[in-house]
């Protein structure tokens, strides 16, 4: 079968299409024939070495497809089931073996493409707004890179929870996307001062929470944008990792900072199932829609990485096996 490997760390050029054997499911595993593979920013960290993985490796953490075969002891699925997963390395391939307790059934009415686009990004939004920080009606919420994969889902989920959303993005076209999803206020961080605009919008109060997947470039503005006892959720490094900071920086307004990972919020199968159920319920209600902004053939994963890192994508990106 076709797979895409990172042969060593580096830029998108280290991604190579290779032919590999179709794996067999061991006890507790299922073999999934992929229909669609989700591209995530974390894939670029695995490729670049920011998050080290043993190379060469087939990268990718998110896909949806149909169960082809099950290993011994598997009772959770049967061949033919429509399933999706996140968090198991090896998704950039036409098929993968995954522990059965790390996959979920895709409900009728949700396409496998939507599931592949939503499993990692949507469950990230789920834990960020419901568990990492609990967004409440009336909260002012600042969401960076709001037209991106996770960003678009965050905007819609926060609106569904009754928050007032301030969205940032790097272009007018991307801000129009955030506006159409329900964002109340828009900041173009390519030419506007984020903290000054937040102060203006919130009459100097600041926001209850900042969801910051941009990292290095927005860190200072995110801290400055918070209200007293506000929470900075720094959950990604699209512009590079945040440099070390002094706890004293938090003292002026008694701020909280957390640096969460999805996989600590879906560590058990119960947590995985609960997060997936919340996500699929919101998709079914229509409150959150998944925008598949672009698709690439799996063999062109390199071009997909170039587009993602070049800030040329909106919404989710799929690789088609
Ligand atoms: P996105 O689709 O949001 O793409 C990243 C976006 O970041 C770009 O489109 C761009 O939007 C913005 N950006 C700002 N500065 C830069 C820069 N210098 N280089 C590239 N992009 C930049 O990606 P994802 O939805 O896949 O992920 C969003 C973030 O969430 C990532 O940081 C990712 O690591 C993180 N994440 C963290 C998880 C966790 O568990 N902690 C789980 C899932 C995702 P614009 O042009 O508008 O600035």
Automatic annotation (TrEMBL):
Protein name per UniProt: Zn-dependent oxidoreductase, NADPH:quinone reductase
Superkingdom of this protein's organism: Bacteria
Pfam family, one: ADH_zinc_N
SMART domains per UniProt: PKS_ER
One GO cellular component term noted in the UniProt record for this chain: cytosol
Domain Enoyl reductase (ER) residues, every copy: 10-319
Protein keywords: NADP, Oxidoreductase
GO molecular function, one term: quinone reductase (NADPH) activity
Coiled coil start-end: none
SUPFAM superfamilies in the cross-refs: GroES-like, NAD(P)-binding Rossmann-fold domains
């Amino acid at each position: 079968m076709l797979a895409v490997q990172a042969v060593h760390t580096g830029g998108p050029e280290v991604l190579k299409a290779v032919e590999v054997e179709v794996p067999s499911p061991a006890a507790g595993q299922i073999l999934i024939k992929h229909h669609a593979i989700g591209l995530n920013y974390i894939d670029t960290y695995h490729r670049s070495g920011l998050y080290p993985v043993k190379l060469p490796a087939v990268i990718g953490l998110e896909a949806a497809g149909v169960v082809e075969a099950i290993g011994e002891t598997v009772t959770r699925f049967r061949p033919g089931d429509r399933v999706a997963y996140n968090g198991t390395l090896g998704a950039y391939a036409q098929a993968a073996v995954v522990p059965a307790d790390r996959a979920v059934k895709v409900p009728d009415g949700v396409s496998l493409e939507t599931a592949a686009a939503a499993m990692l990004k949507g469950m990230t939004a789920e834990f960020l707004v419901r568990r990492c920080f609990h967004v409440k009606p009336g909260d002012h919420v600042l969401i960076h890179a709001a037209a991106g994969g996770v960003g678009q889902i965050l905007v819609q989920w926060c609106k569904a929870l009754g928050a007032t959303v301030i969205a940032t993005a790097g272009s007018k076209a991307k801000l129009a996307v955030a506006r159409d999803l329900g964002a109340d206020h828009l900041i173009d961080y390519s030419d506007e001062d984020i903290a000054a605009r937040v102060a203006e919008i919130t009459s100097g109060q600041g926001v209850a929470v900042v969801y910051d997947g941009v990292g290095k470039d927005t860190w200072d503005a995110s801290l400055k944008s918070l209200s007293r006892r506000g929470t900075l959720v720094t959950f990604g490094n699209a512009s590079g990792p945040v440099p070390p900071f002094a706890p004293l920086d938090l003292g002026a307004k008694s701020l909280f900072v957390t640096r969460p990972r999805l996989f600590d919020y879906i560590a058990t199968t119960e947590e995985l199932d609960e997060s997936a159920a919340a996500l699929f319920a919101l998709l079914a209600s229509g409150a959150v829609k998944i925008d598949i902004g672009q698709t690439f053939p799996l063999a062109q994963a390199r071009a997909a990485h170039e587009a993602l890192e070049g800030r040329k994508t909106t919404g989710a990106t799929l690789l088609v096996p």
